[in-house]
TrEMBL record:
This is Mediator of RNA polymerase II transcription subunit 21. Its main location: nucleus. Residues 44-73 are annotated as: Disordered. One of its GO terms (molecular function) is transcription coregulator activity. Residues 52-61 have a biased composition (Low complexity). Signal peptide: none annotated. The lineage of its organism: Eukaryota, Fungi, Dikarya, Ascomycota, Pezizomycotina. It comes from Corynespora cassiicola Philippines.
Length: 151
């Protein structure tokens, strides 16, 4: 499993993708609003399609899907909103569990010094164990050579 910072970064990437997708959905699928003096189009996607059709009259181009009903659109917006809120809560949870968040800078520095001291102790133990291992290997080799020369 990745560390918390990597998880937060991944979750932020997903949140931004969800936001972009939500905005694209709203831009392309929102039902029209009546604006005085403006032609009524069913969606921005239809407006773009109409503008494209006037520049190139190619009947093989795919028409945009029909806009959803007002109820469908509102339900979709509600679902997209819930997804965004859920993702944001997941990010908040990860941030709340970052190590050292509840301790002061001095406490963190003291903790790092203590860990460094422990690391030095463990390193000394490792060096001693390596010396002991080398000594035992030499003893075993000497015994093997001694047995070989007796026979």
């Amino acid at each position: 499993m990745a560390d918390i910072l990597t998880q937060i970064q991944d979750e932020l990437d997903m949140l931004l993708n969800q936001m972009q997708s939500s905005l694209a959905y709203i831009k392309n699928r929102a039902p029209p609003a009546n604006i005085a003096g403006q032609p009524l189009l069913s969606s921005f996607a239809e407006y773009e399609a109409q503008a494209t059709q006037t520049t190139q009259s190619d009947p093989s181009q795919q028409q945009p899907p029909p806009p959803p009903s007002q109820d469908e659109f509102l339900a979709d917006i509600k679902t997209l909103s819930k997804d965004l809120v859920l993702k944001e809560q997941q990010i908040e949870y990860l941030i709340a569990h970052l190590p050292g968040l509840k301790s002061s800078e001095k406490e963190q520095v003291d903790r790092m010094k203590e860990l460094e001291r422990q690391l030095e102790e463990v390193e000394e133990e490792r060096k001693e164990a390596a010396k002991e291992r080398d000594l035992l290997v030499r003893k075993v080799e000497d015994k093997i050579i001694g047995v070989g020369s007796v026979g």
